[in-house]
Amino acid sequence: MTETIGMLGIGIMGSAMAGNLIKAGFAVVGYDPVPAARDRLSDMGGQALSSPKDVVEAATISFASLPSAAALAEAVAGVARAGGSGQILIECSTLPLSAKREAFAAMEGAGKVLLDCPVSGTGAQAATGDLVVLGSGDEQAFAHCAAAFAGMSRRQVYLGRFGTGSIMKYIANHLVTIHNAAAAEAILLGMKAGIDPGLVYDTLVDSAATSRMFQMRGPLMRDENYDNPTAAIRTHLKDLSIISGFAAELGCALPVYSAAEQLYHAGEALGFAARDTASICAVLEHMNGFDRHCGADASTNSSSQS
């Protein structure tokens, strides 16, 4: 018989994960409070159910890809009411540790298992299965989910006790935040020096200076292609607040990260909240008074006309 996998949350990440699980030969059932998301699952060959409870009663292993701590609490409340015991819910979202731990306690009290397994990767990477699972929690449960993990990711790392996966995701997003900002600065520096952004990208993408963010978001910065986000500034700001709060709890100063973080807040202020995080390149252009379409600094053009 075909194994059934559940999916709670069918947004950008959840739908990509569900699609890959279906391609891998699993039957997928899922729930999302948004009707269009449920339709999306049906269109790709999955089955939309009416509640998290129904999903967990139909699948012994389920994934959760949820936008907020409140969404997780609501989903877990439904899962806890499900009949049976021993079902495994794999929580893949980036959320505060406190929310994950509360969900863990609720699941444990209901005789079910919660794994803390955030994924490293963007929506575009999720679509191709190019995700890394940062796993933590019960080791036997994690091992039991090996086939399901393989169906939606390219690499799975078991990190130990529950919560370590989230901490590793905070560290990963700390680096993503900085590398994305560095890529944007590099593209801008080249343009201000009169070098085409495409030439900057093509020259550096396979050099010692490259990064995964430069490889992935450099083309978006080069082409000013920000309106089909695989990770929006609004979503990343949620992650930034979690990282900043976690570092503050540890008393850990992060000066480079703190400087990079301001570019995303500036992007929101400039109306880019719904655009891809690559649009911080446009934020830097604005901050520098630079208009790439004029081939020179807007400030220079203004002074030469006065």
Helix and strand arrangement:
Elements: E1 4-8, H1 12-23, E2 27-31, H2 35-43, E3 47-48, H3 52-58, E4 61-64, H4 69-80, E5 88-91, H5 97-109, E6 113-116, E7 119-120, H6 123-127, E8 132-135, H7 139-144, H8 146-152, E9 155-158, H9 164-192, H10 197-204, H11 212-223, H12 233-250, H13 255-269, H14 280-287, E10 290-291, E11 296-297, H15 298-305
Parallel strand pairs: 1-2, 1-4, 2-3, 4-5, 5-6, 8-9
Antiparallel strand pairs: 7-8, 10-11
Question: Main traits of this protein?
Answer:
about 10% strand, 15 helices, alpha/beta, 11 strands, disordered C terminus, about 300 residues
Nearest-angstrom radius of gyration?
Answer: 21 Å
Unreliable runs: 299-306
Taking the alpha carbons of the first and last residues, their distance comes to 77 Å
- Percent in helix: 55-70%
Global structural class: alpha/beta
Overall morphology: globular
**Largest sheet properties:** 6 strands, parallel
Number of helical segments with 4 or more residues:
15
In round numbers, the mean pLDDT is 94
Provide the succession of SSEs. Answer: EHEHEHEHEHEEHEHHEHHHHHHEEH
What does this structure look like?
The chain is α/β, with parallel strands linked by helices and 306 residues long. Helices cover 55% and strands 12% of the residues. It contains 15 helices and 11 strands. It has helices at residues 12-23, 35-43, 52-58, 69-80, 97-109, 123-127, 139-144, 146-152, 164-192, 197-204, 212-223, 233-250, 255-269, 280-287, 298-305, and strands at residues 4-8, 27-31, 47-48, 61-64, 88-91, 113-116, 119-120, 132-135, 155-158, 290-291, 296-297. It has a 6-stranded parallel β-sheet, with helices on both faces. Strand 10 (290-291) and strand 11 (296-297) form a beta hairpin. Helix 9 packs across helix 11 (212-223), helix 9 crosses helix 12 (233-250) and helix 9 (164-192) packs across helix 14 (280-287). The N and C termini lie far apart (77 Å).
